[in-house]
Specification:
The chain is mainly alpha-helical. It has helices spanning 42-47, 58-74, 151-154, 157-190, 194-222, 224-248, 250-265, 267-278, 284-313, 316-336, 349-356, 370-374, 377-406, 412-442, 447-469, 475-489, 496-503, 508-536, 539-560; strands at residues 2-4, 14-16, 26-28, 76-79, 127-130. A three-stranded antiparallel beta sheet has the order 1-2-3, covered by helices on one side. It starts with a strand and ends in an 8-residue tail after the last helix.
């Protein structure tokens, strides 16, 4: 039944009611989106009597109301609200039944739902609700910040720098160790004597020693991005020029190898400088451990792929293939890297605040206070400890194939495969040590105590396993002792190798240049001294000297080192 009722001063409402079996009422009121708007003024009501007459047929009206009702019931909204009570979460319960004039109780209407502003409890649960309201009443979908951003756009900028430094160190050792494999076919082709081979191998360290301190000075003055980029390009070019220099003659090859050392010599000071500006202290150990593990994995990669390339394409292919990878890295470095967060236009303010931690950004140093630096006992603790550490490390890594062959009676193939094991062990345990150190710092342990604990493991662990090495009788146990020695040695990445940034972040490049110079000298002298000791004594004497230096380094480190900033 259709009823048109005129009420003075109000708009008219058209309601349609069917039999008692239908409990839905289609209400057509002004502004209703799903119905027809019927408005009559008071003047119209005066001219036309109030009568009951259908405006359309009963079946047509029923179809119209059913279609309108269906559209309402099927409308949905996605809401980022979570509540156990659907009534109080925004959409209220229906109004009570209202009896219609001329209809029975069963013909009462189920009221249209009303919406009120809900109290948001959580925004992390996405639920669907079926609604029966006007689309204009539905709240807009809430979108969480950064929800649509790709994962690589959300990757922290500081860890982008760390990953790029990791790959630079991977390339560094790949280009360094390829000569140790390629020198065998090269010496056969050019007729080099063992003395000449030793001269070629040592020429790398001429340039490497030259730029340790200079690289730190340049990085502290001009920024780590420029210096590290220069170093990678320089040593990559020198790597690719090696086959050409070898064909020209021995003097040219010696110069090219020294040039390669110049490029790789700036890598560690430049990396230390740039990470001192990008990495907060709470992430320092794990970031440095990841970067240094790139060196270990670079040795593994170089030793694994060099024989394959030489057997398939000849020995020059090693230098061309490895050297060309530097151009790919440099392109990414130029695009993604900055020397400090203040120079990066893409970094978020939140990440910048996290990195700086309330500290102000200081200008690059214009002069190095050498007297002040060398007057600090913690600086000398770094230098002495680095020397003691590298003596044992370089001996193990340089003489290990000879030890496997002469003492354990492994053939050369087995020796080569086992030489990869300590590098893998160091890569794994360096990262484990980094996570442990940062966890201790996060739990409130002082940085000084963390550095002393980690470096003590890095000294006493190798000392213990080298002492045990002279007691074992089986090759398997000997290999296990060597691997454990190198694994515990890798904890030094969270000890002395992280300490340069602790005591003087502005001069981190210079400090690493100083200590690493001592470390390189230890490698050179230790390697030569080992050969002399083996002529007069035995491997037990070699290990005893290394153990003594490890103990000296432990004492010096725990007495004089600190994790507090001493250089501003």
């Amino acid at each position: 039944m259709v009823v048109v009722t005129g009420v003075t001063g109000k708009q008219h409402e058209l309601k349609y009611s069917t039999s008692p079996h239908c409990r839905w009422v289609c209400s057509l009121v002004p502004g209703d989106r799903n119905g027809r708007q019927i408005t009559r003024s008071t003047a119209d009501a005066a001219q036309q009597p109030s009568v009951q007459q259908p405006l359309m047929s009963s079946s047509a009206m029923m179809r119209f109301c059913n279609a309108s009702l269906k559209r309402r019931l099927l409308s949905k909204v996605e809401c980022f609200l979570s509540s156990s009570d659907l009534v109080t979460s925004g959409w209220q319960k229906p109004r009570r039944r209202e009896s219609l004039t001329g209809g029975s109780d069963n013909a009462s209407c189920v009221a249209r739902p009303e919406y009120r502003v809900p109290t948001r409890k959580r925004a992390d649960c996405k639920a669907k609700f079926e609604m029966t309201g006007s689309p204009s009443d539905v709240p807009a979908e809430a979108v969480l910040p950064g929800e649509d951003a790709a994962w690589w756009q959300q990757f922290p900028k500081r860890w982008t720098i760390v990953v790029l430094c990791f790959f630079s160190f991977l390339l560094c050792n790949m280009d360094r160790v390829n000569m140790s494999i390629a020198i065998l076919p090269m010496s056969a082709e050019y007729g080099w004597s063992p003395a000449t081979v030793g001269l070629i191998q040592s020429s790398f360290f001429w340039g490497y020693l030259l730029t340790q301190i200079l690289g730190g000075i340049w990085a502290d003055r001009f920024g780590g991005k420029v210096v590290l980029g220069f170093g990678v390009v320089w040593w990559s070019i020198a790597t690719m020029l090696t086959p050409v220099a070898a064909k020209l003659g021995l003097p040219f090859l010696l110069v090219v190898r020294a040039f390669m050392g110049i490029g790789e010599g700036v890598a560690m000071p430049a990396m230390n400088n740039i990470l001192s500006k990008w990495i907060p202290v709470s992430e320092r150990s794990r970031s440095l451990s990841l970067v240094y593990s790139g060196m270990y994995l670079g040795s593994v990669t170089g030793l694994a792929f060099s024989p394959f390339l030489i057997s398939k394409f000849g020995w020059p292919s090693v230098f061309y293939a490895f050297g060309s990878l530097g151009s790919i890295w440099f392109a990414l470095w130029q695009r993604k890297a900055r020397s400090s967060p203040s120079e990066d236009p893409d970094i978020s303010e939140d990440e910048k605040r996290h990195i700086l931690g309330g500290n102000t950004v200081k200008e690059p140093v214009s002069s190095i206070p050498w007297r002040l630096i060398l007057s600090k006992p913690p600086v000398w603790a770094l230098i002495i400890s680095h020397f003691c550490h590298n003596w044992g490390t370089f001996i193990l890594l340089t003489w290990m194939p000879t030890y496997y062959n002469q003492v354990l009676k492994f053939n050369l193939t087995e020796s080569g495969l086992l030489c990869v094991l300590p590098w893998l062990t160091m890569a794994v345990f360096a990262n484990i040590g980094g996570w442990i150190a940062d966890t201790l710092v996060a739990k409130g342990v002082s940085i000084t105590n963390v550095r002393k604990i980690m470096q003590s493991i890095g000294f006493l662990g190798p000392a213990f396993f080298l002492t045990l090495l002279s007691k074992v009788r089986t090759p398997a146990m000997a290999v296990l002792c060597m691997a454990c020695s190198q694994g515990s040695d890798a904890f030094s990445q969270s000890g002395l190798y992280s300490n340069h940034q602790d005591i003087g972040p502005r001069y981190a490049g210079v400090l690493l240049g100083l200590s690493n110079t001592a470390g390189v000298l230890a490698g050179v002298f230790g390697t030569a001294a080992t050969g002399y000791i083996l002529q007069k004594g035995s491997w037990d004497n070699v290990f005893q000297v290394a153990v003594i230096l490890y103990i000296v380094g432990t004492v010096v480190w725990n007495v004089f080192s600190t994790g507090e900033r001493i250089l501003e």
